[in-house]
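I would like you to help me understand the sequence and structure tokens below and explain how sequence relates to structure.
___
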Amino acid sequence: MAFLAAQLDAYLRDAHAIEQGALPRLRAAPEMAVDLPLATAFRQHLVETEHHEQLIRDRLEARGVAPTRLKNAVFKAESPVDLVSQALAYEHLELAAYELLRRLAALAGDNTTRVVATAIREDERAMAERLEACFDRAVDASLRVADRANLDKLVNKYLAYAHAIEARSIELLERAPALAGDLDAAHVYEEHMDESREHQRLIGERLEVRGGSTGETEHLSAKLAARTDTPAKLAAYMYAFEFLEVGAYEQLARVARRAGDGETERVSRAIAVAERGMAERLWQTFAAALDATLDATPAAVTVA
């Protein structure tokens, strides 16, 4: 039981760190959003997140554990649609963290933490759904002053970003099976590696047809960073990464449609569906991943 208690304390500290990381994002988001309803959604979630941070800090104090103190972070997004895309991934990182915390609290017999984690998980799920509903508004806000030439450039830029994100996905998935801790989860990662390679090929074809290139892309670790030193944390990170991909393809599909590129829109929407399906499969691995984490000594591996 002492081992479970120690694990629960660690997951609470991780959850608190995630909430601290969310706060600067949400404080900066309304000004970046441009669109009033979108800005309002971020302001509302800032209030929720401040409450979440307090709830988790209270649980840490009740358990006699010092919270993690993070330095103030600077958050930037290039446009409203980039903001929504990144925020969607972060919400799913939080959603996954609270699902694992809920399960671990139940195993450790801490009903108060279980109830708190369940309530916060549902708040994060609701915010993720609000963000999904905002993609069209975000694209409209981002493209309000764009002409056709700029639209074509943006399609190529987002294609290059999608190509880079698939490369990052493949890099992560090549290492994931050895860290999975569960045979079924390892198979999921292996299958998705093949799928990601196909997605990258399709995006590469669209870039070639359009005369674009992969070019230089920003370092993806800045978009979504988390420790993956246990099977459970790996599963949570990979689940959230799927929604970083979903966001990329949702924005690409909408910009391609406005630019009149129906084929890029079609490919992007099909890949987004596949990424959502993989996210659901990864969610189903959480129980086994947590069991594997509790059964084994974690290897000190971190994915930035």
About this structure: The chain has ten helices and no strands. The longest helix spans residues 2-33. Residues 298-304 have pLDDT under 50 and may be disordered.
